[in-house]
Specification:
Blueprint: H1 2-10, E1 11-14, H2 17-24, E2 29-35, H3 46-56, E3 61-67, E4 84-89, E5 92-98, H4 102-122, H5 132-150, E6 154-157, E7 163-167, H6 169-173, H7 177-186, E8 189-197, H8 201-207, H9 217-224, E9 229-236, H10 243-251, H11 256-262, H12 267-271, E10 280-282, H13 286-296, E11 300-303, E12 315-322, H14 324-340, E13 344-351, H15 355-361, H16 371-378, E14 383-391, H17 393-401, H18 406-412, H19 417-420, E15 433-434, H20 438-448, E16 451-458, H21 460-476, E17 480-487, H22 491-497, H23 507-514, E18 519-527, H24 529-537, H25 542-548, H26 553-557, E19 566-568, H27 572-588, H28 590-595
Parallel strand pairs: 1-3, 2-3, 6-11
Antiparallel strand pairs: 2-4, 4-5, 7-9, 7-10, 8-9, 12-14, 13-14, 16-18, 16-19, 17-18
Keywords: Cell cycle, Cytoplasm, Metal-binding, Nucleus
Main location: other
Pfam families: NDK, Thioredoxin
């Protein structure tokens, strides 16, 4: 409670126009963190602001947070996810900072405070500014919209499986593009879209950002932006259920020598030359195919054969909740039915909710007579939370759920998936919840699967033989590497990193091991990053991992509890502290610089959902840490 009071005194919270006007009347310099209601203010900068306030100790320096959704003066900032800091002096806008460049933020605060003091002390004139970035954003949106409207949409049946294929600059430069295209069609693949264009360096860097940690990344970016490529959307005439796998089989291994040895008839074996120059690209999996498709063909969309009156269906995500008793007794059957219904389970976790969290998530039902039963059920065990994806996901999942009143559902919707798991004399829908709209879906998915950062470490025992394989696993599982560094820890640094284990008998042995050679430190970014990385690592003890999670990193690369190849933060608090220790205060704010997202607030305070059932890797271990 003391910590909250301290934060409240550091930053004034502005949630309406009247408070906004009062804030502008404050004497001195006020730095305002403008945020959106659904995501909340940027908690990650609080430590930086507190540090600045303590160092300067100036009564003329003020900090505030302002909710764009409820302050009339901030209407133009609504819907903007990028961190925005507005500097006000004498009620006038004197500076704007977009993004969370921590050194720049600190420097601007010092400079603008000095300028404001000069105005107040010497009566100088303030240099008032306009937020040109906001105008630039609006202009860019208009241009993008105009280009999108002028460009014909690429429409294909939703039943088709598709993937992105690129004939790379090396094959195009050698005049092989048309020959490769003929072989693609002869092999039974259907080309749904085809463009010849050169990727810019910025586009290439963004397209391959999941490989940023690889040593060849810069060479890859330069090569892919060195000349024109042929970019294709590929399907199969026979509507294969997994064209991604078929395409990757057709193009062969990425390594040319391996391709020539193992798949001599593949495209890479025939047209590749060396290393990066392997002629063609293919998406690694269905999820990556979707991301690449959206990146390269923003006008591509799927159309259901049932579309009428020009109405279209798009790939969407929705949140599904399976109540504890059904999740416990029928979990596998539920998941099988979901997949049979055409959904992809994009994210999945079990969560033990507190009473307060249930009240916050289901706030609209709190006054209803059925809420006590709902509350009791929802806190009786882990809830299975799923982010489901497919065309028309929101409406389709609601149809599958059936009606909330199961007795009525049995009469009117005998095919309803929900009726299959209904409990006699129980008014609670067994599938419990489905998002009401696309907006609700994304907000609710963020509730259960928050965008997070975690610290990952490849330990000294795994660096020489397994580093590349571990990095491949990181990228294959959708993590973005925000920052990384390779280092040999000093004894003092290792002792500070593992200070919580200082009194344990294995502490000196642990410190000695962690200083024995280089290790790689990475900041990983992803929805649900902390739990997902711990699941990939597996249990702390490699022997246990081999029995329970044989495909985990520790099962494959660890030898004992100490030499278990990798480390991952166990909670959000530990992640923040470990990132600060390794990368410093500046890098601890990297989540802001990476993609502009902040901590997610659904209702009231941001919720910590790291209290669910144990994940592979467990929590804080009493043995040598993970």
């Amino acid at each position: 409670m003391a910590g909250k009071k301290k934060e409240a005194s550091l930053q004034v919270s502005v949630t309406n126009q009247e408070q906004w006007e009062e804030m502008l009347a404050t004497k001195g310099l006020t730095v305002v963190d403008v945020y959106q209601q659904w995501c909340g203010p940027c908690r990650a900068v609080v430590s930086l602001l507190r540090k600045i306030k303590n160092e300067l100790g100036d009564d003329l320096l003020h900090f505030a947070t302002a909710e764009a959704d409820s302050v009339d003066a901030l209407e133009r900032y609504r819907g903007k996810c990028e961190p925005t800091f507005l500097f006000y002096g004498g009620g006038e806008l004197v500076a704007v900072l977009r993004g969370a460049n921590a050194p720049l933020l600190q420097r601007m605060i010092v400079e603008e405070l000095a300028k404001e003091k000069l105005v107040l002390e010497q009566g100088g004139e303030r240099k008032v500014v306009k937020d040109d970035g906001l105008l630039a954003d609006e202009k860019a949106e208009e241009e993008t919209l105009e280009q999108s409207e002028n460009k014909e949409s690429i429409i294909v049946p939703a039943s088709k499986s598709y993937t992105v294929a690129i004939i790379k600059p090396d094959a195009v430069a050698h005049g092989k593009a048309n020959e490769i295209i003929m072989k693609i069609q002869d092999a039974g693949f259907e080309i749904l879209a085809h463009e010849e264009r050169a990727l810019t360096e910025v586009e290439a860097r963004d397209f391959y950002r999941h490989r940023a940690a690889e040593e060849c990344f810069e060479d890859l970016v330069q090569f892919m932006s060195s000349g024109p490529s042929h970019i294709l959307v590929v399907s199969q005439a026979e509507d294969s259920a997994n064209v991604v796998a078929a395409w990757r089989e057709f193009i062969g291994p990425a390594d040319i020598e391996e391709a020539r040895r193992e798949k001599p008839g593949s495209l890479r074996a025939q047209y590749g030359t060396q290393a990066l120059f392997n002629a063609v690209h293919g998406s690694e999996d269905i999820d990556q195919a979707g991301r690449e498709l959206a990146f390269l063909f923003p006008n591509f969309r799927t159309a259901s054969v049932k579309e009428q009156d020009g109405e279209e269906e798009r790939v969407e995500r929705t949140l599904a909740l399976i109540r504890p008793d059904v999740a416990r007794e029928n979990r596998e059957e539920v998941l099988a039915k979901i997949q049979e219904s055409g959904f992809t389970v994009a994210l999945q976790r079990e969560v033990m909710l507190t009473e307060e969290q249930v009240k916050q998530f289901f706030f609209q039902y709190v006054e209803e007579d059925s809420f006590p039963a709902l509350l009791q059920n929802m806190t009786s065990g882990p809830v299975l939370a799923l982010a489901l994806a497919r065309t028309g996901a929101v409406e389709h999942w609601k149809n599958i759920m059936g009606l909330t009143d199961e007795h009525e559902a049995r009469e009117e919707s005998t095919e309803s998936f929900g009726t299959r798991f209904a409990v006699e004399n129980d008014s609670i829908n067994p599938l419990l919840h489905g998002s009401a709209s696309l907006e609700d879906a994304e907000r609710e998915i963020s509730f259960f699967f928050p965008k997070q950062q975690t610290l990952a470490m490849i330990k000294p025992d795994a660096m020489e033989e397994h580093k590349d394989k571990i990095l491949e696993e990181i990228h294959a599982n959708g993590f973005a590497v925000v920052q990384q560094k390779e280092l040999v820890q000093s004894k003092e640094a290792a002792e500070e990193f593992y200070t919580e284990h200082r009194e344990k008998p294995f502490f000196s042995q642990l410190v000695e091991f962690m200083c024995s050679g280089p290790c790689m430190m990475l900041i990983l970014d992803k929805e649900n990053a902390i739990e997902d990385w711990r699941a990939i690592m597996g249990p702390t003890d490699p022997d246990e991992a081999k029995e329970t999670f044989p495909n985990s990193l520790r099962a494959r690369f660890g030898s004992d509890v100490l030499h278990n190849s990798v480390h991952g933060s166990s909670t959000e608090e530990y992640a923040e502290e470990e990132i600060r220790l390794i990368f410093g205060d500046i890098s601890s704010d990297a989540e802001l610089a990476d993609d502009g997202e902040t901590d997610t607030t659904v209702i009231g305070e941001p919720l910590n959902l790291n209290n669910g059932s144990p994940q592979p890797g467990g929590g804080d271990d009493p043995e040598p840490p993970n």
